[in-house]
Amino acid sequence: MASRKRDIFSSAGIKDALFGNQIEAQDADSGKLPKHPTHSRSPSPMPRERIYFYNREDPYYSFTNFYPSPIKHEGKIYPTSEHLFQSLKFLRDNPEIAEYIRKFSDNPRDAFNEAHRHNDKVRSDWLRIRIDMMDLVIGHKFRQHKHLKDELQSTGDAELFEDSPYDAYWGIGRDGTGENQLGKALERLRTTLREEEAAKGAKGVGEGTKGANEANRAMRLNPRDNIGWNKHHGGVEDVVAGKPYTHRLEPGSGSSKDSHLRRPRIFFYNREDPHYTFTNFYPSPIKHEGKIYPTSEHLFQSLKFLRDNPKLAEHIRKSSDDPRDAFNETHRYNDQVRSDWLQIRNEMMDIALSHKFRQHKHLRDELLSTGNAELIEDSPYDAYWGNGKNGMGENQLGKALERLRFKLSEEEVKRYAGEVVEDPEDIGNRRWQENRKKL
């Protein structure tokens, strides 16, 4: 399994560092057995396998709360389990702060930092209920994403350790003797998931609701109103909101001292690249305003003229099925491109990509499969849409794909939760018609 690694910034464990040194002391007279009995003659049990997770490069980074997996709680979508965990510190007493943290940024590190800024507003009983809240959060996460649930169950009986050197409460701390409460929470959930699997077909799954009931009491919520827990603890879910991704890391990134700052990177550009499908030259016909365009490149180039010169836009659409021809033909008419193109080109790219990936399920699934990886168009010829010759370009195409990926993932969670999600293609077409003059 994964060997232990050290990094200079927490991925998931620092989440409660503001309380990490306030752990309640154990009562010496509580009557509990010592952690390490000194007089047992029974044979020592076989040591359990150990799995350490913490860094992005670790095989089980998905167990951290910083892993990008949108989850639903009480009818709202949180970008990561970290967002929900931090929001729960305020949800009962200061819901406006909780909502601010939920929406402030998609980055879980930002959610952590914002919660820290409002430390004086954290609910007074947080130290007592924080483990219940963690159980609630990871219950949502692993039940709403089947590939994560399967990965957790695949760990067998292994001990799970958050290998954070900065958190001796949720992680194991610098000296490796921390409480590892996140790892323990994951092991509890793993056991519960297996019990639920074993109870399929029986009258019901009761044990799976225990943590939910305790959490609801702590939060003073009506269980009937708690949409997430009712759905996700009443039985075993089978939702796929994304698949484990494959990627190649940037050369040298694995050994760099600041590798914690880097997400896995997927480069695409050439036909032989595994994700050439992400380019606009990939042959995937798409429909826009009732017309078929051979590729997303054809649509994107046509949009430069569609408002002011629809005949020219139609010429580009029909002149050739080769996207290179559409590109070259457009550049012949540069003097007729709509005057505000530089201001709206990113929005036009969003439209073209949305059509492409929503109208082709295999492309949508491939995009979702990339997880949290950074998507980079590895074009040496384009420093705006790609990363340019020196690798320092703006990579706007990659960023547009990441925006779309997040939206698609949100929609998967909403559909699973039973919400009616209107066809985004219909929504997009209506908005296009309404705003066409403006666009």
TrEMBL record:
- Sorted alphabetically, which CDD domains does this protein's record hold? NADAR
The NADAR domain is annotated at 52-194, 267-408
Q: Entry's Pfam families?
A: NADAR
InterPro entries named in the record: NADAR, YbiA-like_sf
Q: Where is this region: Disordered?
A: 25-48, 197-220
- Name the UniProt record assigns to this protein: NADAR domain-containing protein
